[in-house]
Every structure is written in structure tokens, then in C-alpha cells.
Amino acid sequence: MNNPTGKLYLVPTPIGNLEDMTFRAIRVLKEADLILAEDTRTSAPLLKHFDIHQKVFSHHQHNEHQSSNEIIKFLLQGKNIALISDAGTPAISDPGFFLVREALKFNIAVECLPGATAFVPALVNSGFPTDKFCFEGFLPLKKGRQTRYKFLAEEERTIILYESPHRLLKTLDEMATYFGADRQISVSRELTKIFEETVRGTVVEVKQYFETHPLKGEFVMCVAGATAKPAKGKYERDEEEEE
């Protein structure tokens, strides 16, 4: 008789503060048959801290297509596998989406635990509307970057972006060009860590601040949505066309 398939667990890990690890996440990692980590060197201190000794295998953006085949075989054999990224929730600007999609193709159960992710506290801290927002993650590095900016310039929802320290000032310059120097933004860095800070203001004001302050840690940028265009003009044009 064949064993029932195992389950794939997506387990969020702290984005900085180890106290944000949930009891449930620790239990699932301890009970898993094996753990997949984006970088085993990064996950080792975390697992050691919580006394987790399961086997750990590497699963990152450069090998996930190849390794997913082997992982699916383990799951079909009844193994329970937990996937973690370096920080935050797997598959959110991190590896995981491809594996989840492959698991679902084979009717393998997938369960994502709630937990840490960087963009939610950054959004709430921003003071911008949270009822509707647009998560963009990292913008394209080269091809398609300008096109994306032009598209987002008209976005009326709050926009959320991730950015690295060495590209932050360049990105702020580009935002001034495509969104306007006076567009309101909120930039958070080192979330949940000792030197956590959030800087709010216009694009120009925030850029001036970071030109003279440390560019360390990962950055989450929240951009106020574009002001909605009044509908009256459209209706007037429609009436003119009918005449």
C-alpha cells in the first residue's frame, strides 16, 4: 500500500528580531522530515538558537527548478518538508513560488504559516492608505525598469517596493523623475532590529536625509498613490463627443 503524500510547509522566519519566531513555526520545523533553506549558512544560527536539528538542504533561486524535482519525490513518498527563506515569508520576493506550483500539480498539500514579512509593518508605519495597496517587490534592474516606473506613476493605490542599500539613492532619483519630486514616500530600514527607522516626506526630502545617513540594511519603500483624476472632465468630454 502506498504511503499518503507528505505536506509542504512554508515557514516564515524573523526579519531581524528572533522574538518574532512563532511557537508554531518552531514546532513545524522540529517535526519536519527535512528543511529547505535559501542559504544554509544564514539559517544555521536560527536553527541552532531554537534547538532544531533536522537535516537542511539548500533551495534557492539558482537551483529551485532542478531541486524541486527531487523535493516532489520526497513529498510523494510521504515526507513532510518545511521551506524557509533567509528572512520573512517564503515566496515573497524569495524562492518558493515554483515549488508550491509544482507541489499543487501533484495534489500535494501545501500549508503556509502566518508570520514575519517586511512589507506589512512598513506599510502600516507609512501612514498611507492600507485598504488598497500594490506590492511590487524589487523593480527590474535594467530591462523594463523605465516602463514599470511609467506604469506605476499613474497607480492610485499605495505602492510598496523593496530596495537594496547600494541602489537606494539611484531609485530615489528615478522616483523624482517619474513620480515627481513632491510625491510623498515612507522608507523603512532595519525593521524589527535595534537601528530600525522610518523616514517620511517627499522624494527629495527623503533622498537628502539618506545622503547623509547610513545606507545599511534592507529597505522597504512605500509610495503614496497618484492623486485620482477628477471624473468631471471625462463626463464633459463624453458630452462634447455626443454633440
Automatic annotation (TrEMBL):
Q: Please cite one Gene Ontology biological process associated with this protein.
A: methylation
- Tell me the compartments it is located in: Cytoplasm
Q: EC number(s) for this protein?
A: 2.1.1.198
Signal sequence residues: none
Q: Which reaction does it catalyse?
A: cytidine(1402) in 16S rRNA + S-adenosyl-L-methionine = 2'-O-methylcytidine(1402) in 16S rRNA + S-adenosyl-L-homocysteine + H(+)
User: Which CDD domains does the UniProt record give?
Assistant: RsmI
Tetrapyrrole methylase domain sequence ranges: 7-205
What domain of life does the native source organism fall in?
Bacteria
Which of UniProt's keywords are assigned here? Cytoplasm, Methyltransferase, rRNA processing, S-adenosyl-L-methionine, Transferase
Q: Please name the GO terms that the record assigns under molecular function.
A: methyltransferase activity
Regarding protein family, the annotation reads: Belongs to the methyltransferase superfamily. RsmI family.
Q: What does this protein do?
A: Catalyzes the 2'-O-methylation of the ribose of cytidine 1402 (C1402) in 16S rRNA.
Protein name, UniProt field: Ribosomal RNA small subunit methyltransferase I
Which species is this UniProt entry from?
A: Mucilaginibacter angelicae
Q: What is the lineage of its organism?
A: Bacteria, Pseudomonadati, Bacteroidota, Sphingobacteriia, Sphingobacteriales
> Its gene?
rsmI
